[in-house]
Amino acid sequence: MNRIVRLVHAQEQQHTQATDLNVLQTPKKCRQKRNPRRVSYRRRLQFPASPGRGSFSALRGGGFGGGLDCFAYEHSGTEGTQVFPMAGASAPLKVCIVGSGNWGSAVAKIIGNNVKTMQKFASTVKMWVFEETINGRKLTDIINNDHENVKYLPGYKLPENVVAVPNLTEAVKDADLLVFVIPHQFIYKICDAIAGHVTKQAVGITLIKGIDEGPEGLRLISDVIRAKMGIDISVLMGANIANEVAAEKFCETTIGSKILENGLLFKELLQTPNFRITVVDDADTVEICGALKNIVAVGAGFCDGLRCGDNTKAAVIRLGLMEMIAFAKIFCKGQVSIATFLESCGVADLITTCYGGRNRRVAEAFVKTGKSIEELEQEMLNGQKLQGPQTSAEVYRILQQKGLVEKFPLFTAVYKICYEGKPVQEMISCLQSHPEHI
């Protein structure tokens, strides 16, 4: 009996080419006890068969920490293969969420509930919280005792296994999986603070919607984290209004990952029956969609404030999408697939944000009240930062550097209205003279 055995995680069978290998689904008992990520890519150690006794193979993990995860026993007198988990396999993966705002708290609710049922992940989830005082109590104390982020996600209980930690380096210590969900303008400060405190074996995912300026123009937030931390970073973007996600209303999202194995790992950590995830390898496009759609949403909010009607707003969305695609094709270093814009991270997120997001709401109030963006952030967002206006400023400077301002009139109009005091009516003028109509 010399039949070769390869074990794969059930979710990954569709990605496996079974040629001369017999691809077997890991038995449920083993899947529950071992890390499926380690069961995916194996070195097989063959031990010779004894007469009448069959043979067995030890399967060595190729992911975190190595070690023998399972062994497979094949008996010459029976069909099939029995697989048993090895004692002393690697410890469960520890998760840390870096950020605790509206979206970060909603994600913490998902992860906290998911890890309760998965032995692959540690049962305690650390969440770094920027300490604030709410009615005389520390926000971390409120979260850890009342299990609710009363400032940023009021009305939704967090799982008791989500632990708020005010010390950033203590929160990320020993973490295997890092989930970044902070305003993008703070990413350098955060990375500088935790560099050297995160293991090189860790992997991360960013839910941050924004971009940075680099010496050659565009620099993605994932690139910043990757350079600062020296770890692989996936991205998650989609039509995900935080309160609706926390309320467990059905939605979709997209994970972009340059290392598919890591994208599938985060899918397992985050997916629920009402939070469905597609994994693609076009990570840069996924990320750029999440940043640029906020600029378009500000433009949509201006239209609502001017009472332009649905036809005009639809034009803003369409022309905004065209500028998003054009920008990605010019500035993304990796592949840019138009199909990615049809995922949740693209058209779906754009539509949701232009109708229900806070960038749209604040932009509408900007037109109707005459107040500044900063004033409205304090009044409407509990002091949280709006991403659309700041991203428009970063995009404008990148376009200026390349001499491309005139090719992106919608992005440019949003910037000039927000920061240069141009009248909001310029939003309509930019639509009327848009290059798409020439």
TrEMBL record:
Pfam families: NAD_Gly3P_dh_C, NAD_Gly3P_dh_N. The keyword Glycoprotein does not apply. It comes from the Eukaryota. This is Glycerol-3-phosphate dehydrogenase [NAD(+)]. Gene3D superfamilies: N-(1-d-carboxylethyl)-l-norvaline Dehydrogenase, domain 2, NAD(P)-binding Rossmann-like Domain. GO terms for biological process: carbohydrate metabolic process; glycerol-3-phosphate catabolic process. Keywords: Cytoplasm, NAD, Oxidoreductase. One of its GO terms (molecular function) is NAD binding. The keyword Ubl conjugation does not apply. Residues 282-428 form the Glycerol-3-phosphate dehydrogenase NAD-dependent C-terminal domain. It catalyses: sn-glycerol 3-phosphate + NAD(+) = dihydroxyacetone phosphate + NADH + H(+). GO terms for cellular component: cytosol. Its main location: cytoplasm.
